[in-house]
Amino acid sequence: MTLVATLMATVTFAAVFTLPGGFDTSPDNLGVAILVKKASLKVFILADSIAMCCSMAAMFSLMWAMISEGHYLRELAITSSRVLQFALLATMVAFMSAIFAVITPKALWVAILSVESFSRYYAEAGKKGGNDINFNY
Questions:
Q1: What DSSP string runs through 25-67?
Q2: What is the DSSP letter of 1?
Q3: What is the pLDDT of residues 5-30, one digit of tens each?
Q4: Are the beta carbons of 133 and 78 closer than 8 angstroms?
Q5: Cα-trace Rg, the chain
Q6: Count of CB atoms within 10 A of residue 83's CB?
Q7: Mind listing the pLDDT tens digit for each residue in 73-112?
Q8: How far is 71 from 79, CA to CA, in rounded Å?
Q9: How many CB atoms lie within 10 A of CB 54?
């Protein structure tokens, strides 16, 4: 689980510096995101930031669990797993908003269909109880 948390932190950190749509190269707005006024880019930045913070928290919690004993180990593992699940959800939201930001100007129906399919998939996975965790120590 520590490896997954570390990879999530790495991916979400890199995603901020490679924003969807790229950066403006004109002298007046050098370095400013091209899609800065779009709501979908704002959602991307917010979701990506949440995902990075949650994955970092899970990583630190798991590192703390390595030196803990007794019932703290179980609690830290459960907390880390839940925070990491939230980070994965936020990463999915960031991915969907990036697709929406980039594809919408040329193919709105593709953007809506992709966001809808991801949303339905995650909703169905949640109904099946995929987030129930059972640690037996």
A1: -SSTTTT-BTTTT-HHHHHHHHHHHHHHHHHHHHHHHHHHHHT
A2: -
A3: 989 899 999 988 888 888 878 778 78
A4: yes
A5: 18
A6: 21
A7: 888 888 999 999 999 989 988 988 888 888 877 888 887 8
A8: 12
A9: 25
- Between the alpha carbon of residue 53 and those of residues 35, 82, 86, 103, 105, the distances in Å are 23, 13, 10, 27, 31
Tell me which residue of 124, 100, 87, 114 sits closest to 12, measured CA to CA. Answer: 87
Distance CA 52, CA 11 (A): 8
Look up residue 110 and give its two tokens: 């593709």
CA distance linking residue 126 with residue 136, whole number of Å: 22
Spatial contact of 29 and 62, defined as CB atoms under 8 Å apart: no
Between CA 95 and CA 93 the distance in angstroms is 5
15 — phi, psi (to 5°)?
-65, -30
Residue 134 has pLDDT above 60, yes or no: no
Beta-carbon contacts of 62 under 8 Å, excluding residues fewer than 6 positions away, are 1, 2, 5, 76, 77, 80
- DSSP letter (8 states) at residue 23: B
Tokens 């699940």: give the residue.
85
